[in-house]
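Narrative of accomplishments. A recurring question from our advisory board has been how the design workflow behaves on a single, concrete structure rather than in aggregate. To address it, we present the structure tokens for one chain from the evaluation set, followed by the sequence designed for it. No filtering or post-editing was applied between the two.
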């Protein structure tokens, strides 16, 4: 099986297999960001589905930084009980599955996967240093809540044109002070977030970091620049780097990358070796496009430690169990139609293409 079914250790956390459920916005919390029965059911299905590591959808570290109306909260202590319930569901029914909450701030509106969601209230170019430091501290405070809730790790959304990604990219960061200008200054916010989280959760709790390998945007950063950032992140205390990419117009970008990848499936495969070289023995994950066992195994053979999946697990939450523990090795049924991505701006996530009710009303 190319090692896909083999355990792997991240810091002190042993993950039972190499399939990572990449953070996927659910838009299923209540209006205050609290856990609902719908979220509990979603994570029950994922936990029994066989993934080794489950990362929740983006949880806001500040109320003013949320993008989706029903986004999960990590911004106050009132969220801890609900998050604890999610962790208990995953641990009870996941047969050793590990779990993390992904921390998020939307930053400047109009980037990422927002597609008409709420307007996050942050002006990157005009924010005073005091506000920037306060926001950095909010990541550490949110991480402590995640730890109190009983999760195994804390994850950070540093990709896709949200706040951390906006600080890193010259496309969105036009500052000329210590928070912008040079690549080192643009990475200062991210490194501050790592230090804030590590100071809150201690040395033993793994920190997982999703980041762009390429902005895929004119004037943006590419693989070489981001690999250097990744090196700095792991030196600061990050235990796993998860590669993704893109600042804006994500649906168009992913359609293009899927076509370019072809049978290899993995959108960001060319970035594997540069990042492997940059982060040494730290864990490396890659998300984007993987749907078949041969493609996943090829990625592991290239030095990637975890295969991240998002959309295939929306339509088939039991896909990992099917691929790893049953005779049925067919590739995922997900067609990358991206209808789920258009939906999450205002509605709960679901697979639109294979939803029986959606099919029925389309045929009226």
């Amino acid at each position: 099986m190319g090692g896909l079914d083999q355990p792997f250790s991240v810091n002190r956390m042993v993950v039972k297999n190499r399939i990572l459920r990449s953070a996927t916005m659910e838009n299923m919390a209540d209006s205050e960001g609290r856990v609902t029965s719908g979220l509990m059911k979603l994570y029950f299905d994922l936990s029994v589905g066989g993934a080794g590591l489950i990362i929740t959808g983006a949880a806001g570290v500040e109320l003013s930084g949320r993008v989706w109306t029903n986004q999960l909260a990590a911004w106050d202590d009132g969220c801890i009980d609900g998050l604890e319930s999610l962790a208990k569901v995953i641990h009870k029914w996941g047969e050793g599955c590990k779990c993390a909450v992904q921390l998020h701030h939307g930053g400047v509106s109009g980037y990422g996967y927002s597609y008409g969601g709420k307007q996050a209230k942050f002006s990157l170019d005009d924010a005073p240093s005091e506000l920037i430091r306060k926001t950095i501290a909010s990541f550490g405070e949110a991480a402590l809540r995640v730890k109190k809730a009983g999760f195994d790790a804390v994850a950070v959304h540093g990709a896709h044109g949200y706040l951390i990604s906006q600080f890193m990219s010259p496309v969105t960061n036009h500052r000329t002070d210590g928070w912008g200008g040079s690549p080192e200054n643009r990475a200062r916010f991210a490194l501050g977030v790592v230090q804030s989280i590590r100071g809150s959760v201690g040395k033993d709790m793994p920190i997982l970091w999703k980041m762009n390998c390429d902005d895929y945007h004119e004037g943006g950063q590419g693989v070489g620049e981001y690999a250097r950032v990744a090196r700095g992140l792991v030196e600061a205390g990050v235990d796993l780097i998860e590669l993704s990419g893109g600042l804006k117009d994500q649906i168009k970008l992913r359609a293009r990358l899927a076509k370019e990848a072809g049978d290899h499936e993995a959108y960001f495969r060319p970035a594997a070796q540069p990042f492997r070289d940059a982060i040494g023995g730290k864990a490396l994950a890659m998300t984007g496009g993987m749907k078949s066992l041969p493609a996943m195994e090829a990625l592991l053979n290239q030095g990637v430690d975890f295969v991240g999946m998002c959309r295939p697990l929306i339509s088939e939450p039991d896909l990992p169990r099917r691929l790893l523990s049953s005779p049925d090795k067919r590739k995922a049924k997900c067609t990358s139609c991206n209808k789920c991505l258009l939906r999450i701006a205002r509605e709960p996530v679901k697979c639109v293409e294979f939803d029986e009710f959606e099919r029925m009303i389309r045929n009226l």
